[in-house]
Design a protein that fits this description.
mainly alpha, 38 helices, 4 domains, 9-stranded parallel beta sheet, globular, TIM Barrel, about 900 residues, single chain, de novo design (two linked rop proteins)
């Protein structure tokens, strides 16, 4: 073994020890809860699966399958759950190991900082030779937004997350606290208790989640982690900059969080305008409570007396004003804080926040109060921040500023980041409901005789320009359909949210499946007509064709006089969203990535020609097949010059849980994104000419990959049957993971299936087709592409290196030995043999190519920690995959409805388990 692998193994030793400890704890719980006989069965299956991985054997595999088949359904379900809980604990240990490594770097004296940390960012900026003024200018241009979405890829219930959160806290105590023997025994007992509760907690939801359930899930992460962690990370960066440059360099809201939860109605009939407003109301309620809690701490610390510390006239006058707006409350606390002006002012501020919270409640739930007037609360977050600044300035002038400077700076930055909205909510809708609404409105008003959607593009644009110039008009609501009324009500909710929640509560309206300039002008007219002239209109380009057409569409918009006027009102800022999931499903992995790369380059050129400040919004999923993968690596692989410090990225499904359930890991993820944006925008120079020749190679490969992918997925008549039978797609569609249906419309066509269940299904069957299919076929059909060229591209071109690395990360999780068992579920032998043999052959050829291009002996040799993790996981995932195949076969054959219910439940447990084991859903 080489020295590097020895070092890697040494780094992983604490993780191995912790996994072993948690495995032992789970074993003790299983014996206590289910008995020694059940535990012995689990152990036999586990050891047999490990032996199969070490030395594949058809006879041993057949023996394992017979054993699993012979188990009573109740026992088989428990077996699946045992492996699932094991992975829940392993995932926890892996996340904690990331914290351990971060703390290790921070504890090293005078060493090079951890890569991509705020310490390294500050050091790199200093080493680049930039002046403090230049750094300040760069920081003022950074705009990063991480958008939390409700896509149905988080298979874990919140009850499970809370138990794991408790175990994590106990593990951290073991790591960072010195525990006595008695305390260690108590800690062990508590961990066993939490695992026992976890074992007794049902992982399956009894009903499909509602949008408001999803809102509460997102608020869990905002409340438990991000409210403190985001400002703390940015202020840590500020301190490191001051340390390196020896002068203050203020850091503003470089990174923000946004949300789609309660705003994304694309294909989800459960998200209505009422849901959208209630989501925002709950967000406001949650953030106000966080501010009130933060003030509790400040009030406790602010015991300075008037005689000893003094106070400014500004502070004293502001309290007099508060006394007038809160007379009864002020009178009640008159004697209590008579000589403590800072405590009194902060208590008055807190009271105004409490009143603001009361006004935010639905009218029927508001508590009555003699102080209940608008003046008794805050109209907006700016008023709250100004009030807090009065206290800070007084402390600074009276020589008390340094005593609590960090606390006030953190709270003021939090107000700047979160306002009264907590996170900005995006609205997303498909273009078709909007087009139907516009057609219905203009026809009922008599503005056009024909059906608006049937008009030629130029005529549509001409009509829309005219209506935009004369908007708003008074639209008659009488004869309109429910769908059109809902479209208009959503726009009116946006206006109401700006008035009642926060002026930045909703900034953007995203239009899915944008095809043309008229689609966006249609959105602009609806915004103007409903009193939302300042709304950012975001076209979303999703299919391969739409990505290719995107630059032309945007150029047409930039030239359009009414849209150009709209952009001037927004400071010439334009957000454009690019869809990773649907483009992959449409054209395959290679073609999708190339179309996205090219679109970014051409969109950036178009924006520069028209003097537009462009921000690209990357609709990435959790898995590599949906644009996922390490975020910093993906950002660094973007085309040179396309970022300029501005980026927006979706954070979806299981990604949210793995990245933001723990403050240390949340901080690390924020660091990784921020450092990658800084690096890609200002610290790394890439020769554009060198990349041009490689781009021509990828262009040729992309064309052939597209043909190969489409010929299989959309042109082979047997493929839909293979997909339905050889994956658990139908069972996944019924799984109560999220509120959104699996299909846009009721249809069995692959075109109408959403990208998330598409990827989820292939992941479950261990085929993982969306993350690799097409490259081998493309190379076989493309002349003049040598292995030497590909190796050079891999070494020197970040885009191609990331493409190949992400591909091999997915392929390591695939297993065609197990995939062949899923193929056995296809009833038609000809279809089964034809499709599976093609997939198996393509996979083998792709694997060979990856090893040749990367110069590795085995896949992921260059990423030892990940390779080791997947290798250790696979034998524990395999039993759940075997069980799932057996259960799917029984379920689909069973005529007994009662038995089918039990089988269905067992299948859903297996879906959860495989997702935990592979650390991916959709």
């Amino acid at each position: 073994m080489d020295e590097d692998k020895k070092l890697q193994q040494e780094k992983l030793k604490p993780l191995r020890d912790e996994v072993r400890f948690l495995g032992d704890c789970l074993g003790r719980v299983l014996i206590a809860q289910e008995g020694r006989k059940f535990f012995d069965r689990v152990e036999w299956v586990r050891k047999t699966a490990i032996a199969l991985r070490r030395e594949p054997s058809a006879s041993l595999e057949a023996k394992l399958l017979r054993k699993i088949r012979s188990l009573p359904l109740e026992t088989l379900t428990k077996l699946i759950r045992a492996f699932t809980v094991y992975f829940q604990l392993v995932n926890l240990a892996e996340e904690k190991h990331r914290i351990r490594r971060k703390r290790h770097y921070e504890s090293l004296p005078q060493s090079r900082p951890q890569p991509a940390s705020v310490e390294e960012m500050a050091l790199k900026l200093k080493e680049s030779g930039m002046s403090p003024g230049k750094v300040k200018k760069i920081l003022s241009e950074i705009s990063i937004e991480l958008v939390l979405t409700a896509h149905p890829t988080e298979a874990q219930r919140r009850s499970i997350l809370e138990r794991l959160f408790a175990v994590n806290g106990l593990l951290i105590d073991r790591e960072i606290r010195y525990l006595t023997s008695r305390e260690l025994r108590e800690n062990n007992s508590k961990i066993l208790r939490e695992i026992a509760i976890l074992w007794q907690t049902d992982e399956l939801r009894r009903r499909r989640q509602t949008p408001m359930d999803e809102v509460e899930n997102i608020l869990f992460y905002l409340d438990a982690t991000l409210f403190e962690t985001l400002p703390a990370t940015l202020l840590h960066f500020e301190k490191e900059l001051q340390k390196r440059f020896h002068q203050p360099i203020p850091v503003g809201p470089l990174v923000r969080f946004g949300s789609w939860v309660g705003g994304d109605r694309d294909g989800n009939p459960h998200v209505t305008h009422e849901v959208t407003f209630e989501a925002l109301r709950r967000q406001k309620e949650a953030v106000l409570k966080k501010y009130i809690q933060a003030l509790d701490r400040l009030i406790l610390e602010s015991s300075q007396s008037l005689e000893l510390a003094g106070a400014t006239d500004e502070l004293l006058k502001s309290m007099e004003k508060d006394n007038r707006s809160l007379p009864r409350f002020a009178e009640a606390m008159k004697e209590k804080s008579r000589k403590e002006p800072y405590r009194k002012k902060l208590t008055l501020i807190q009271r105004k926040l409490v009143n603001t919270l009361r006004f935010n409640a639905p009218p029927e739930l508001r508590q009555s109060s003699t102080d209940e007037t608008l003046e008794a609360g805050y109209r907006n977050a700016g008023e709250f921040r100004s009030d807090l600044a009065v206290v800070r300035r007084s402390l600074e002038k009276q020589k008390g500023g340094n005593l609590q400077a960090a606390e006030y700076r953190a709270l003021e930055l939090a107000i700047e980041l979160f306002g009264f909205r907590f996170v900005r909510l995006d609205i997303r809708e498909d273009r078709l409901p909007l087009e139907r609404a516009v057609s219905e409105i203009v026809r009922s008003e008599g503005w056009v005789k024909e059906k608006f959607s049937d008009l030629p593009e130029e005529e549509k644009c001409s009509c829309l320009r005219q209506w935009i110039r004369t908007a708003p008009r008074s639209i008659q609501r009488g004869p309109l359909s429910d769908e059109t009324r809902e479209v208009l009500a959503t726009f009116e909710t946006i206006r109401r949210a700006h008035e009642e929640i926060d002026s930045r509560a909703i900034d953007s309206y995203i239009l899915s499946m944008t095809h043309s300039r008229s689609d966006v002008l249609m959105l602009l007219w609806l915004a103007r007509e409903t009193g939302n002239p300042g709304l950012h209109l975001v076209p979303l380009f999703e299919t391969i064709r739409d990505l290719e057409e995107a630059p032309r569409v945007m150029e047409a918009l930039y030239r359009d006089p009414v849209y150009a006027e709209h952009l001037r009102g927004l400071g010439k800022n334009q957000e454009i969203m690019l869809g990773y999931s649907d483009s992959n499903k449409d054209g395959g992995f290679l073609t999708s990535n190339w179309a996205l790369y090219e679109a970014q380059k051409r969109l950036t050129r178009a924006a520069r020609r028209f003097g537009v400040r462009q921000k690209l919004f990357h609709g990435r999923g959790g898995t590599i097949g949906r644009g996922g993968g390490p975020a910093n690596q993906a950002i660094l692989a973007q085309p040179a010059g396309t970022l300029e410090g501005r980026i927006k990225i979706t954070e979806q499904g299981e990604v949210i849980s793995s990245k933001y359930s723990n403050p240390y890991i949340a901080e690390r993820n924020i660091e990784l994104v921020l450092s990658a944006v800084l690096e890609a925008s200002w610290l790394r120079q890439r020769p554009a000419r060198e990349e041009e020749k490689w781009e021509k190679t990828i262009e040729a490969l992309s064309r052939e990959s597209y043909r190969a992918y489409r010929s299989l997925v959309y042109e082979d008549p047997g493929f839909p049957e293979y997909f339905r039978s050889a994956t658990p797609i139908e069972e996944i569609s019924a799984h109560h993971i999220g509120s959104r249906p699996a299909r846009r419309v009721e249809s069995s066509r692959i075109e109408d299936l959403r990208a998330i269940p598409w990827v989820f299904s292939w992941m479950q069957s261990r085929t993982i087709l969306p993350s690799w299919f097409g490259l081998a076929s493309a190379l076989g059909r493309t002349e003049k592409v040598s292995l030497q060229d590909l190796r050079e591209m891999y070494r020197r071109w970040p885009f191609f290196r990331t493409l190949i690395d992400f591909m091999q990360m997915s392929m390591q999780k695939a297993d065609f030995r197990i995939a062949s068992l899923y193929a056995g579920l296809v009833p038609d032998a000809k279809i089964r043999e034809k499709i599976f043999s093609r997939l198996e052959e393509e996979y083998a050829r792709t694997l060979k190519i990856l090893l040749e291009v990367t110069g590795q002996k085995e896949i992921l040799d260059n990423y030892y920690a990940l390779q080791n993790s997947i290798r250790l996981r696979n034998p524990y995932v395999d039993p759940m995959s075997y069980a799932q195949v057996i259960l799917l076969d029984r379920l689909r054959r069973s005529p007994d409805e009662k038995e089918k219910d039990a089988l269905w439940r067992a299948v859903l447990f297996s879906i959860n388990g495989v997702a935990q084991g592979l650390r991916n859903t959709g």
